[in-house]
Amino acid sequence: MYDFLKRLGIEEVNSGVFSDRWLEGKGGEVTSYNPANGEAIAKVRLADRDEYEQVVAVAERSFAAWRTKPAPLRGQVVREMGEVLRAHKDDLGRLVTLEMGKIYQEGLGEIQEIVDIIDYAVGLSRQLYGFTMHSERPGHRMYDQYHPMGVVGVITAFNFPAAVWGWNAMIAAVCGDSVIWKPSLKTPLVAVAMQNIFAPVLEKHGVPGLFSLATGHDDVVGETLVNDHRVPLISATGSVRMGKIVGAKVAARLGRSILELGGNNAIILTPEANLELAIPAIVFGAVGTAGQRCTTTRRLIVHESLVDAVTERLVKAYGQVRIGDPLDENTLMGPLIDEDAVQQMTKALEQVKSEGGEVLCGGERVDRAGFYVTPAIAKAKNSFDIVQNETFAPILYVIPYSDFDEAIGYQNGVPQGLSSAVFTSNLLEAEKFLGHQGSDCGIANVNIGTSGAEIGGAFGGEKETGGGRESGSDSWKAYMRRQTNTINYSKELPLAQGIKFDL
Ligand code: UN1
């Protein structure tokens, strides 16, 4: 057991169930593996239904107490969480790397996203604005306000095992909500560590159950949480397949959901692109996090005049990507999460060939323990079935175009709509791409890549990406209930719309 794990409170066997204290975890256990060598790191015990019930009951009570604290005071508690997070940043970044396999710089970057969202949330706690409107009735005042909503269920994926919870939990906390976290069973230790470091702060402020943890199987914890009418909002990140199930179940009870599902993100490279910017952006976007971000660049829509030169440069750059132990600071690409991910990548490359594409480089398994592959580039058509689907692996499909409208058609011609980018120095192309007939994605960038969004913006996408928005801008509104208030300070009772109702 590494020393840094002990500093995060991780033991050989851990409970993954926290209400306002650690419960036993009676729903079996999972082993967390290090994808860099396939070895077991530690075990995590899971929630059974009774324990889930305990977690929800505490979350409801915590909400009832927490919502009475003025929002700026809630912000101060969140600020203190930022202090403990900063103190543990290196250890947490290392744990993200150990358990998920992204390189250490990216592990740190992920924790930094939570530090940043905390700073954002602290400022937000003095805002949470509603508008005031002018009433049509004399002696009346009308305004809208946002109230805390309740218990928020946060379901996260393995690829951002900490940050996605952080965006949700910190915003929910300043909004006055309590949070139940159901983490991925591939990365449960990160969740245990996060709970460990924040618990003393919450305890100190008398709300030990504000953030709780219900690690468990989908059919025990997942289903129950999603169907639970005591949880008015479910924020779920993961595959389109998962999102369709979660979205339908939450909608069936008329609950609310924030869905952040798959992406199929493209960069358009026009003849007026600055390739000195574009090439590193493409490589980072496609290869970073071993292609396991929802914002990963999966398609390169490139003008036909540039295809040969650009693919040559990319193949050369791919040959220089240092693949290896993600904790080694020279490494640029770590392993995939597990064996299944390697198989999915191999299958996708077989399929692109069978559909008539050509693999230009990569896709081989690296001969060492762990789940390492070489990143791949394949020439393809946008219409290929395999190109229409998100494969969570470092595969970049190169799709030539001749006319800019055709490029935008390809960009939009997939079921998903998360992130998109164009590289061009041509103002008309850039503006067209950002205009209403341009990119149909939730994120559209000019001269930067598709991944690595800042927390200050609203994060999420359209179509099968699910339509939810998390993180910055006014995403907080989804975590509160909205109320319109009209106050009559006159001595009359005028009705709206000029209606007379004389008794
Ligand atoms: C995700 O992959 O689920 O924009 C989130 C990015 C990161 C977040 C990705 N800030 O790439």
Automatic annotation (TrEMBL):
Q: Does the keyword Mitochondrion apply?
A: no
Q: What is its EC number?
A: 1.2.1.3
Which domain of life does the protein's organism represent? Bacteria
Enzyme class (EC, first level): oxidoreductase
SUPFAM superfamilies named in the record = ALDH-like
**Which N-terminal residues, if any, form the signal peptide?**
none
**Matches recorded under InterPro entries:** Ald_DH/histidinol_DH (IPR016161), Ald_DH_C (IPR016163), Ald_DH_CS_GLU (IPR029510), Ald_DH_N (IPR016162), Aldehyde_DH_dom (IPR015590), ALDH7A1-like (IPR044638)
The residues annotated as the active site are: E260
Name any one GO molecular function.
aldehyde dehydrogenase (NAD+) activity
Q: Which UniProt keywords apply?
A: NAD, Oxidoreductase
Gene3D superfamilies in the record: Aldehyde Dehydrogenase, Chain A, domain 1 (3.40.605.10), Aldehyde Dehydrogenase, Chain A, domain 2 (3.40.309.10)
Q: Name one Pfam family in it.
A: Aldedh
Q: Domain Aldehyde dehydrogenase, which positions?
A: 22-484
Which PANTHER family does the record cross-reference, listed alphabetically?
Answer: ALPHA-AMINOADIPIC SEMIALDEHYDE DEHYDROGENASE
In the record, the note on similarity to other proteins reads: Belongs to the aldehyde dehydrogenase family.
Q: What does the annotation say about its assembly with partners?
A: Homotetramer.
Write down what this protein is called: aldehyde dehydrogenase (NAD(+))
* Organism, scientific name: Sulfidibacter corallicola
